Amino acid sequence: MPAAFHTFLCRTDNIGVLIHDEATGSTASVDVPEAEAVERALREKNWRLTHIIVTHRHLDHIEGIPAVKAKTGARVIAPKKASAEVPQADELVAGGDKVKIGELAASVLDTPGHCADHISYWFAQDAALFAGDTIFTLGCGRVSEAAPSVLWSSLQRIAGLPNETRIWSGHEYTLSNARFAISVDGANEALKARYAVIEKLRAQNKLTVPTTLGEEKATNPFLRAGDPKVQKAVGMAGADASAVFAELRERKNRF
Ligand SMILES: [Zn+2]
Predict the structure, then answer these.
(1) Binning pLDDT at 50, 70 and 90, where does residue 70 land?
(2) Predicted confidence (pLDDT) per residue in 6-27, tens digit
């Protein structure tokens, strides 16, 4: 049975997601950015929380865990490298591990770069990836604790998944990401068309998550660092894609 997903806003720009297994009634929250928002979403869907799957240890992703775990008894699955920051974890995982939410199965992918402990959850059967702050719709996470090439490698790992993969990221930053994307890839027709759609969605306060990997490959400059047009736009024609990615990331920081 396919999984059901519910996506909602938390805090100011964090994305909350519930993953629901109809067969068993199991429900997982991807991170808990804000306890009240997650509890409200559970009430709206009439789902009972059984799992919390954590992508990384930043406070805006884990702050609601203690309150929600205390209320629901949900099993907390967190990155091995975030054990100190998520003491509520019942299970610590790393790349290659499997996670079960009822009958739904996810593989854990190591996706460091935004921070060292960052992992993503890949539900192959549902073509769904929960990527936290690794990749955003038309953007990517900021780099900390490592060289930009570490995040580039993680993005390459994600780019290797099937194009139809739906990607849920941790924030709604898409309008700002789209403006930056246009500044470095303005001749890209697919990007221009998408920018118009995104402006409309955001004007109606609609979320632009999930995106698909295929759309991101066509329009997200951070996945297109190997594209000659993007390379030329930043004055790095023929350069190593990883170096172009680092330059793009640096320009976005200043954008
Ligand atoms: Zn983060």
Answers:
(1) very high
(2) 999 999 999 999 999 999 999 9
Q: Which two tokens stand for residue 65?
A: 């865990």
Q: Confirm if 16 and 47 have CB atoms less than 8 A apart.
A: no
Q: How far is the CA of 238 from the centre of ligand 1 (A)?
A: 32
Map out the domains of the chain with their CATH numbers.
Answer: 4-169 (3.60.15.10), 174-254 (no CATH)
**What is the Å distance from ligand 1's center to 255 Cα?**
19
What is the DSSP-derived secondary structure letter of residue 161?
Answer: S
**Residue 224 CA to ligand 1 centre (angstroms):** 22
Residue that is written with structure tokens 């805006």 in the block? 60
Cα 133 to ligand 1 centroid, rounded to whole Å: 5
Which chain residues have CB less than 5 Å from ligand 1, an ion? 58, 133
CA of 15 to the centre of ligand 1 (A): 12
